[in-house]
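subagent[fold] <- orchestrator: predict structure for attached chain, return tokens only, no commentary.
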Amino acid sequence: MITPENPMPLIAFDSTAALLTTDTSFWVALLVAVAVFFLLGMTLLWFNRSKALRFYRSLLYNDALTEIRNITYLRENFNDILIAFDQDVSMYYINLDNFKNYNDLLGHALANRLLYQVAERLTNLVKPYGTVYRMHSDHFVLLYPTQSDNDNAFAETLIRTIKMDYPAGVHTVKLSASIGRYAIQHSTPRFHDCLLRSELALQEAKTQGKDRVVYYSSAIKRRNHDAFAKYRTIKEALKEKRFFLEYQPILCSASRKIVGAEALIRLRDDRKIYYPQEIIAYAEKYHLIEDIDRFVIAEAFEAFTRFEKAGSVLDFMSVNVSATEIKNLSFVDYVVATAEAFNIPPEKITIEFTETQHPEDFTQEATFIKTLQAHGFKVAIDDFGSGYSSMVRLSQNRLDRIKIDRSFITGITDNRANQQIVEAIINLSKTFGLEVIVEGVETENDLNYLATKDIKYMQGYFFYRSLTEKVCIGKMLQ
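subagent[fold] -> orchestrator:
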């Protein structure tokens, strides 16, 4: 019996303590379990993350098509790779010649198989001394000890290896390659410098006829320096508006009077005046030509109106544009809009381009010519006979005029072969209803010979050199 004198036993307090002890053990166990699961999860996460990083690194550094290292790996690890060679190394920049043709002929699946086989051959060739990387498309980069190719033996073996037959479905394919080689210098081990120099050597190999190895040299370096200087000169001249036009009179063969003028581009520099043959090829190569052509069109059309205001009325103005504009139909829109802006009758303008386009471009060329003619402009081929002249070109294109190249005219009285060529071109022009302009008339003998031929227009130094606009107008008013 519980009384004040006999209080409740302390066992009730002990039960509560036991309960509290039990609860604490539960929470500790729970926390331990959570910690274990957390650590296990973090371990799995770290493992999966490492696995994912290895996978993505593989995607980043390995070429999926050829299963060799790609150029990203070479770029990011270039110095370490060179150190691992522990000797002088040469870089070979390889480009398969005309590989696009195989893509078109065989389809991408078989063409990709060819690329895989090329990579496999290159890898087997350089083992264990060299390494191979895929740049992109049909371009590869190969590193190999320089000393192993002192007698060009490796370069020749490299060419032969690539040229061996390749199975492509039921077909057998032969490939060739152009290769640029640069012996990496200790003073210039930077990746981009080495790649640039091997690529410059590659470009030289292509200009020499492809299917060869060209070593980077001081001559290549000098040409590249000159090309860059010319690019910079053209770029700055466009920005600073240092291009200008001169005009060479075109005479009627019968009356010997000035009836037309050819607008000729010039570039004024601090040191000299640049002429078309010194700038156009570079402008085309470095994609600056469209800006130049647009300047020529705008300036020549505006000059045509000034000739008329001065009383020197031209039957036509000839304007030279780059043959690269053949692929640029927006350029035709610019020509049309500019003629409308200056209120010039299109038939008063002859657009000239040089026949430098390969026959595969005849369809685009025909579209270009027909579009111009549909707007009323005349079209002429400049330097006829010096480029890809052919019956196909004349049959597909309804030209208005042809200009016989000066190389056939210079010294024509003493060159029977050139006489026959000129007479053949004149007869050909009659067949196709073309007007003939002869350029390069430089002597009285040239003139006397040509005067007996059915030629409508002449121009050349015997009559006039290229003149400023003011002087040309003055000559017409005499």
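orchestrator: received. Logging for downstream: The first strand starts at residue 89 and ends at 96. The domain at 71-216 is CATH 3.30.70.270 (Alpha-Beta Plaits).
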